[in-house]
Write a structure and sequence with these properties.
By secondary structure, the chain is α+β, with helices and mostly antiparallel strands. About 35% of the residues lie in helices and about 20% in strands. The chain has a five-stranded antiparallel beta sheet with strand order 3-4-5-6-7, covered by helices on one side. Strands 8-10-9-11-12 form a five-stranded mixed beta sheet, sandwiched between helices. It has a two-stranded antiparallel ribbon with strand order 1-2. It is elongated.
Length: about 325
């Protein structure tokens, strides 16, 4: 996806004339970017205003970041526009990097390293979908005004590593409802679906708090999810959650439980999840393991503000004022 933390890139030149194939690098940016040249705006859509609104949704959490749309160019593909944006930092005047992405003819998607939603409010559809469908085990607030949803696979090592971050989010944002959604990657993790199914049953028998204990126990003993030890590992996790292993095994084999796991997986697919763990903050997708926690906190605070939610800053968030 478009970088949320703006990884360094080599400045990319823009065409010397509309539609031309020859690329000419601009002169070093001054104060802080090169002048905008109207001849580099050959596409009818999207507008500069829409691009700026989109980038504000992605990057506005960082007060040090500044950018300028340098080109919106038509391409050989009908309706596909090429967007060139110069990006810099206020603390490093005169230095810039370049981000290039493409928008689809319907104006709903942007393509860079991945396909993501585009527009002035690119995450609204995701937010509505999650408000309606993210009904997995939850911690924190009862309301969904600030909804943080994690799609996770209990056999995924990166998901295990992300749990300390999820715990910290629960602590730092008591106004948030933090939801766990099962997304077992069955093609590479053969015991993830069973772990998810038994987790559904633990929750059904003992509630959300018990599920949290079960999931943590599975993550802690993740190396035991093998052909020889998977059943014993999951039995122990169920026991630690205060539930009955025999009942969980029987429940996990029912059609209702299988359907529940598949429904969670389908929700993730509808949102474009293709790897775990993936976090959504009021609909904005964030690859949680690629974002430092201090940056993640800023994104949550900023996202909440965009959606009209005043976050009550906890002591660890004082620096975000």
């Amino acid at each position: 996806m478009l970088s949320l933390v703006m990884a360094a890139q080599t400045p990319a030149p823009i065409p010397s004339a509309p539609g031309a194939g020859v690329l000419v690098a601009p002169k070093p940016p001054a104060d802080p970017f090169p002048p905008v040249n109207p001849k580099f705006f050959t596409a009818t859509t999207p507008s500069v205003e829409t691009v700026n609104a989109f980038l504000k949704q992605l990057w506005g959490f960082d007060p040090n970041r500044q950018w300028q749309v340098e080109a919106i160019l038509s391409t050989k593909a009908p309706g596909v526009a090429k967007i060139v944006v110069f990006v810099g930092e206020k603390s490093q005047s005169g230095k810039s990097q370049t981000t290039v992405f493409f928008t689809t003819p319907d104006g709903k998607h942007a393509i860079a390293d991945n396909v993501i939603d585009f527009g002035a409010k690119p995450f609204e559809d995701n937010r509505r979908l999650l408000e309606a469908g993210a009904d997995g085990p939850a911690r924190g607030a009862a309301g969904k005004e600030l909804l943080i949803v994690e799609f996770s696979d209990m056999q995924c090592p990166h998901c295990k590593d992300a749990q300390s971050t999820m715990d910290q989010l629960v602590t730092d944002f008591p106004q948030a409802r933090v939801v766990f959604e099962n997304y077992p990657l069955v093609d590479i993790h053969p015991y993830a679906f069973q772990a998810a199914a038994e987790g559904v049953c633990v929750r059904k028998e003992k509630g959300d708090d018990a599920f949290a204990k079960y999931a943590q126990a599975v993550f802690d003993a993740q190396d035991g999810l093998t052909a020889a030890n998977a059943n014993a590992t999951l039995d122990l996790a169920v026991t630690k959650a205060g539930a009955d292993p025999a009942a969980a095994i029987a429940c996990a084999k029912t059609q209702a439980t299988t359907d529940a796991v598949h429904a969670s997986m389908q929700l993730g697919k509808d949102l474009g999840v293709d790897a775990t763990p993936m976090l959504f903050v009021n609909g904005q997708p964030i690859p949680i393991t690629n974002v430092p926690y201090e940056v993640l906190k800023r994104i949550v605070v900023y996202r909440a503000g965009l959606d009209g939610i005043q976050v009550k800053l906890q002591p660890s968030l004082k620096t975000l004022k």
